[in-house]
Amino acid sequence: MADMDDDDLLEALGVEAAPNKASMHTAQQERLIAGFEDILRFVEAHGRAPQHGEDRDIFERLYAVRLDRLRGLPEARDLLAPMDTAGLLDGQAAATVNPDELDEDALLAELGIDAPAGDDDITQLRHVASFAERKAAEEIANRTRCEDFEKFQPLFESVENDLKDGRRKTLRFGRDASVLQGNFFILGGQMAYVAEVGEPIRAPNGEADARMRVIYSNGTESNLLQRSLQRALYKDETGRRITDADNGPLFGDTLEPDDIESGTIYVLQSKSDHPFVAQHRELIHKIGVTGGKVETRIAAAKDDATYLLAGVDIVATYKLAHINRTKLENLFHKIFAPAQLELTIEDRFGKPVKPREWFLVPLQAIDEAVSRIRDGSITNYIYDPKSAQLKAQK
């Protein structure tokens, strides 16, 4: 085959040779375009323009302020008109912003970015990061394998159990934007633990920052800046702060959403003729909490597989005020989990059922557990099924 030069090869492949074009935009115009592209991505994701409002995500509020500024710049409108398929620039700029809401400088401060002092030229949009700056931020947040993850895995397991038991909660990140050593967060669907925080450093914008070691529940870690984690949590719609464990008493002076003003812990024995139940009747107990009458709660016991399809006797009750029902029941079940009754029965329709709220526990152990829950000392004890009593944790 005859030798072909580069142009001939391109033509044979159907590729048109063309000289490389230099960028047609100034640095300032590139920033205007990058800022508007952020707004367009928001519109594509949410189906509407960004809006002002204290209840809005901080980035949406930032985009709303940015859009108002772009609408007021004739040169920006001319530059961005070909990109404005959503007609955003034709909208009206917000006449005023509620003084209780953050202005743009305050928004930027929340994001760890300050506008240069003494520079009021709004055409600069200096907070719009260049591609290189964004790439650098991504590289900082890259995760690597955590070589000593076995040290941290028990912490994640403990937090997961605390969340299930109601001792911890997850809160939307934002109202408390602090990031401290020992904090747990949820980021990108993974639990994140701030294992180490380095010495404070001064960021280019003058704000205080620090390099951190963050461990993730999937066995990876990252070495990133404190403000980088804050920004990532702000941007992640599912980003959450995990509260510290609540080891205190379950009975307080104020009511929470799941509290009942007064109620009863009840302990039941079954009248079932099941061979195992009949043999160990004095040890098998069901523990529950109700805000009404116990008698009403158990009225249909003989027709309910939860009650072993048999009548029950009330063997003990404890009147308490300001009870968080979910926390209390979860705590009882956690304490006596080693002695949970493993029994399968058939319900009225012949389907196998495993009741989960019955325990092989003597009544005196339950009575002691209630007393220790009242005074807050229960967190120092575990139930030992071999000795059938509560024992202090070592």
From TrEMBL:
<dbReference type="Pfam" id="PF10544">
    <property type="entry name" value="T5orf172"/>
</dbReference>
<protein>
    <submittedName>
        <fullName>GIY-YIG nuclease family protein</fullName>
    </submittedName>
</protein>
<dbReference type="InterPro" id="IPR018306">
    <property type="entry name" value="Phage_T5_Orf172_DNA-bd"/>
</dbReference>
<feature type="domain" description="Bacteriophage T5 Orf172 DNA-binding">
    <location>
        <begin position="279"/>
        <end position="373"/>
    </location>
</feature>
